Amino acid sequence: MGVNMIVAQDSCNANQEEQLEIKSKNNSNVLKSNVKSVTKSFPKFVELGTSVLNGVIGDYLEKENNDLRIKMGFYYHNKPVKLETDSIKKMYSDITPKICILIHGLCANEFEWKLCGTEDKDYGERLQEDLGYTPLYLRYNSGLHISENGKKLSKIISSLIKAYPVKIDEIIFICHSLGGLVTRSACNYGKENDADWINKVKRLFFLASPHLGAPFERFGNVLTYVLKAINNPVTQLVGDIINLRSNAIKDLRYGYIKDDDWKGYDPDELLKDNRNDGSLLTDAEHYNIAASLTENPEHPLNKYVGDPLVPLYSAFGKSKKMEKNITFPKENNIVFSKTGHIKIANCNEVYKQIYYCCNDQSYRLIE
């Protein structure tokens, strides 16, 4: 009987050792998987950090030819797309004559279309599956003057037209926040220069774009003006430091999209609106899709707050001064309730709106 107990004990110990070994291997596999996941994501966070830096001081980086400055271009899976026919063919397996250009906002890059949303696939990928659009994701130095990026964008789209493997029949834009102003600027300069891509643009979707500017930048303007007016070297130094924010951020004070809006003016003058009219494309549909934090988008607070980085009047281009109004079609102004400024870049309901508009179907949640 004693022998049987010893054998049983040895068998039990062997089973425990085997279980511990299996558990150790499983833990090791989980650790390796987590490390692999973090390592795979690490380059994205590095790129995102660089994009934030460009948004804040990108004009300085450009002036100093700093290696951290971002050169505008299309990106595919975190790799720059060479605007050469053979290169485009290699990178894109399914090329169609309909393209969708997605343009990110301030301090961001193309990862923002997935970063803070609820959907696994972004708008470009979903439109590719559902309606056959080829998505092209722009990355750019979001700290430069909006008009500078607008001119660059117009030129890069012209280069894309020449290198694209098939004839492009249709272009649509999906733009988030600052990206909407960069796109309007590009369209403005494209028209002025008779760019070959302008007549191919069919639809433009502006997601929470501050067409009339952003209150947070006007607050920054007032704050620095007050700090520098105080006869104290410390407060004046703080004011000088805050004033180092990029030209793009200062352009957001009133939504400057043309060189004439800012050239020859003091960028730190107190609340001076020098914005000139930037006409819309006559043969394209323009959609303003705004966000609202409240459940009822018709709540009086939304008139002034919106998402709240971009109030509704700015998202819809409605100014108290008639000469400052932007003549967007009223029927194309849409509000999504309980949606934030970032979430609107990856939201299933917003995608439905874009899908139906692109599919020439009537679909409107709220007008």
Task: Give a verbal description of the structure.
This protein is an alpha/beta fold. The protein has a domain at 70-213 and 274-358: 3-Layer(aba) Sandwich (Rossmann fold), CATH 3.40.50. Helix content is 45%, strand content 12%. It is built from twelve helices and eight strands. Strands 2-1-4-3-5-6-7-8 form an eight-stranded mixed sheet, with helices on both faces. Strand 7, helix 11 and strand 8 (333-337) form a beta-alpha-beta unit. It is globular, with a radius of gyration of 25 Å.
Which characteristics define this entry?
single chain, 367 residues, Rossmann fold, eight-stranded mixed beta sheet, 12 helices
Given as residue ranges, the uncertain stretches (5+ residues, pLDDT < 50) are 1-10, 27-40
Number of DSSP E strands: 8
Strand order of the largest sheet: 2-1-4-3-5-6-7-8
Q: What's the CATH superfamily of the domain at 70-213 and 274-358, by name?
A: Alpha/Beta hydrolase fold, catalytic domain
CATH fold naming of the domain at 70-213 and 274-358: Rossmann fold
Order of helices and strands: HEEHEHHEHEHEHHHHEHEH
The global form is globular
Radius of gyration: 25 Å
Amount of helix: 40-55%
